[in-house]
Amino acid sequence: MHYNSGMREFEFNMALSAQKTQRIYQGEARYILVESDQGLTLQLPAANFRDYVGANGIHGRFRVSIDAGNRILALRKL
Questions:
Q1: Long-range pairs for 36-45 at CB < 8 Å and ≥24 separation?
Q2: What is the spatial distance between Cα 22 and Cα 71, in angstroms, rounded to a whole number?
Q3: Given CB 3.0 to 4.6 Å as the disulfide criterion, which of 16, 23, 48, 65 pairs with 57?
Q4: Backbone phi and psi for residue 69, each to the nearest 5 degrees, phi listed first
Q5: Which pLDDT tens digit goes with each residue over 15-54?
Q6: What is the pLDDT of residue 29?
Q7: Contact at 8 Å (CB) between 37 and 2?
Q8: For residue 6, what pLDDT is reported?
Q9: How far is CA 24 from the centre of its chain?
């Protein structure tokens, strides 16, 4: 976890199947729960992951940057 003037960053791995990912596109899934490397559970808006959906779902390592008000500043695939 990194701190910079109220900003926090968390890294996590994600492996969602194509079937589960389809729920994002259908609007059924509004949030995705992930566990950060620090052991914290993060509830992130599913819409933020749409750019990372592939034929096999969403897979990879990600970093999310959150401001002091818990708003997402950036989500990046590493």
A1: 36/1, 36/10, 36/11, 36/12, 37/10, 37/11, 37/12, 38/1, 38/10, 40/10, 42/10, 42/12, 44/72, 44/75, 45/72
A2: 25
A3: 16
A4: -95, 15
A5: 999 988 888 778 788 899 999 999 999 999 998 998 998 9
A6: 82
A7: no
A8: 83
A9: 12
Which amino acid, one-letter code, is at 50? R
For the record, the structure tokens of 9 come out as: 């960053």
Token output for 27: 């609007």
Alpha helices of the chain — where are they, by DSSP H?
18-25
Beta strand segments in 1-78, E: 2-4, 7-16, 31-35, 41-45, 58-66, 72-77
- Tracing tokens 């969602």 back to the chain, one arrives at 16
Integer Cα distance of 73 and 71 in angstroms: 6
Q: How far apart are CA 10 and CA 64, in angstroms?
A: 5
Find the length of the chain: 78
